[in-house]
Amino acid sequence: MSKWRFWSRFSEYDNTVDQKTLRRLAEDNFVSHSVPAPGTRLDVVHQIAQYAQIPVGIESVPDFLADDKLIRGQVIFESLGNALDKVALNYPGMCWWLTERGVNMAITEPLHIRLGKRLDSEVATLIPQTRGYAFENFLDVLFSVSGLSPRKAFRLKGEQIDGSFQLDHTTYLVEAKWQEELTGNRDLQAFAGVVATKATWARGLFISYSGFSSDGLFAFERGSKPIICLSGDELRHIFEYNLNLADALLLKARYTAETGRVFMPVQELLKSSQVDPFHTLS
Bridge partners of 156? Predict the structure, then answer.
């Protein structure tokens, strides 16, 4: 779950300022101001930004806010983030976020739809030379909006790690591949070897957009391996049905712990689990 989940309309997906700046400008930035009547909700947004302890600019807000007339004045006595959230709650699908230029508000599509479109329409259409890097960036965004505290790809002496995240107090290292052929035993063994050289409590998530070969999985699963596997088909299923990524990964991790098998499609696991399939991502 996102650390900013107490704002129901904050879009972590669109936000571009770092957590320290977001906390300073939205969570700890207090607004004590009375918006006089008559006015509009557009006036309210502008005055929230203007009269905050630390004034914040406005980059983009919908013009239709000016059509929503307020016959009574409005007292604002709360953080900038809480005040913006209350404005956004008046409009179905409206979210707010911050960039280096200031406050943004807009009516957006549901997050799971936007993520699915980004994967299929943006990442999938790139040339192979740039697609792998774009896929890593996409996964970093996905882990972030899923509240998994990701770290981007990093290099250690003699090896490259495609990223990491936290799930249920466990650190997972990430290997991400976007290639035409199915991922086989050799790649799985190589990644398992990397994970095995880290702390004993470290785990691994191997994400293969094309999926995994049955022969490769059979050869790899002989012996205990501290990783779980996720395919592109599973990602599309998660987005299509608006599933919670953290729940899906925990379900897969439990299956692996109980069976020793590192891959079973989340679609199949949900059929026999007690996890609510409508505990959503967004």
Answer: 159
